[in-house]
């Protein structure tokens, strides 16, 4: 290859350079491991594979998947780390990088992240750093990972001072879901995952919301055909929203619905007793109550959202949470978030199914009222 670039006559003037990149990947929703293996073989195309999961998922699914890929003639190495949010750390990432360095994996070989959001976030970040970026494929195994963490290329590990503090935007080569893996997931995790799908219905798809209203018993009962439809619908909504702003340049994102108070709840309870989806469900109920009190949302739609959350088994009121929540601590955590975000605390408030507005002026009083809303009053409205 020959290139000839001109040498400017004088050393004056700034040099403008560009580094644009268009990422594109497919998301496949399957119902069997056989289908996953077929899709994986097509994506891997004979390259080496490093399969990474947590110990629980390794025991239930990833080891078998790695063995099957190996039996199909691929060169596969596999490892796992302890399950749980505590593993989403620089220490785990560093161990994984050491492990990768000891494998024969080359620049175009494939890292396979098999697991829930913790595995997917951690492995994605490791893949973004190893050799300045190796291709990775997500095989989600929790509902939350199917409908959220595996999509969008937000990869990160936690830091003692904040969750997801060390991360990047690094898109996967493909996402290959198998709803069959959800059969081994416990009901509470399944419910928490449903919260994120209900959120997508409220912000962008009344049809998806209605689908969950009608079909949540089948989904929670393990019906894979219905679950595959749910995951497919949620994928279309999330990918549609993310592709408008893949690098989150606009912070006024409807996908944050439920996350302002939800994030504060997780912070004050130390990311342990309240699952992410449960915190988001409570946050959505609070945001809907704020919207209703402001006259932005009619009470029927607010009640419809809260009824669905309750029917699925998710918290909408203080008493529903699995811990005693210190409301003053939640308000303090929100002030902390406000400080980090240049003095602005953003709420996504629903105005109808499929429609939201952003409010930067929600007061402490409104938040306290929404969090501590009287249970009896709420039940009366629901039945009245
Ligand atoms: P998780 O990954 O910790 O999984 C929950 C538990 O379920 C773990 O113990 C895991 O071992 C187990 N598990 C996973 N799959 C299983 C299966 N099929 N059968 C039985 N057990 C199984 O938790 P999660 O809820 O999937 O993810 C939470 C993480 O996702 C958080 O760190 C959050 O920040 C992150 N997240 C990321 C994004 C993103 O856009 N990147 C979006 C949402 C959440």
- Strand line-up in the sheet with most strands: 1-8-5-4-2-3
Order of helices and strands: EHEHEHEHEHEEEHHHHHHHEEHH
Q: How confident overall, as mean pLDDT?
A: 94
Please name the CATH architecture of the largest domain.
Up-down Bundle
Number of helices: 14
CATH-assigned homologous superfamily of the largest domain: Dehydroquinate synthase-like - alpha domain
* Shape summary: globular
Largest sheet data: 6 strands, parallel
Got a strand count? Answer: 10
Task: Describe what this molecule looks like in 3D.
The chain is of the alpha/beta class and 384 residues long. Helices cover 49% and strands 15% of the residues. The protein has helices spanning 33-44, 55-71, 90-101, 117-129, 143-149, 187-204, 206-220, 224-244, 259-268, 276-293, 299-312, 327-340, 364-371, 375-383, and strands at residues 26-30, 49-54, 76-81, 110-115, 136-140, 154-159, 162-169, 174-178, 347-352, 355-359. A six-stranded parallel β-sheet has the order 1-8-5-4-2-3, with helices on both faces. It has a two-stranded antiparallel sheet with strand order 6-7. Helix 6 packs antiparallel against helix 7. It is globular, with a radius of gyration of 22 Å. Residues 54, 56-57, 60, 83-85, 88, 115-119, 121, 141-142, 144-145, 148-149, 152, 154, 164, 181-182, 184-185, 189, 276 line the site of nicotinamide-adenine-dinucleotide (NAD).
């Amino acid at each position: 290859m020959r290139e000839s670039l001109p040498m400017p006559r004088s050393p004056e003037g700034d040099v403008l350079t560009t580094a644009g990149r268009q990422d594109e990947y497919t998301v496949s929703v399957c119902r069997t491991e056989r289908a996953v293996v077929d899709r994986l073989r097509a994506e891997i195309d004979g390259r080496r594979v490093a399969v990474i999961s947590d110990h629980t998922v390794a025991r239930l699914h990833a080891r078998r998947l790695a063995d099957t890929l190996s039996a199909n003639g691929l060169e596969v190495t596999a490892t796992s780390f302890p399950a749980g949010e505590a593993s989403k750390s620089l220490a785990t990432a560093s161990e994984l990088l050491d492990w990768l360095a000891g494998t024969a994996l080359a620049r175009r070989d494939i890292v396979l992240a098999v697991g829930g959001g913790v595995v997917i976030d951690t492995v994605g970040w490791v893949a973004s750093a190893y050799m300045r970026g190796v291709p990775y494929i997500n095989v989600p195994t929790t509902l939350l990972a199917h409908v959220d963490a595996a999509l969008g290329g937000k990869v990160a590990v936690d830091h003692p001072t904040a969750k997801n503090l060390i991360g990047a935007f690094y898109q996967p080569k493909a996402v290959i879901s198998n709803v069959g893996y959800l059969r081994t997931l416990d009901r509470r995790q399944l419910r928490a995952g449903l919260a994120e799908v209900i959120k997508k219905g409220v912000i962008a798809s009344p049809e998806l919301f209605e689908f969950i209203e009608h079909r949540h018993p089948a989904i929670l009962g393990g019906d894979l055909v219905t679950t595959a439809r749910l995951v497919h619908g949620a994928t279309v909504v999330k990918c549609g929203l993310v592709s408008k702003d893949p690098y989150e340049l606009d912070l006024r994102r409807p996908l944050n619905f439920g996350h302002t108070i939800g994030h504060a709840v997780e912070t004050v309870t130390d990311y342990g007793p309240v699952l992410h989806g449960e915190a988001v469900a409570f946050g959505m109920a609070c945001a809907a109550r704020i919207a209703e009190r402001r006259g932005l949302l009619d009470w029927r739609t607010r009640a419809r959202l809260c009824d669905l959350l309750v029917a699925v088994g998710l918290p909408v009121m203080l008493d529903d949470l699995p811990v005693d929540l210190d409301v003053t601590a939640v308000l303090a955590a929100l002030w902390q978030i406000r400080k980090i975000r240049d003095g602005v605390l953003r709420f996504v408030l629903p105005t109808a199914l499929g429609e939201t507005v952003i409010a930067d002026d929600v007061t402490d009083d409104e938040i306290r009222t929404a969090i501590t809303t009287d249970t009896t009053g709420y039940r009366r409205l629901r039945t009245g």
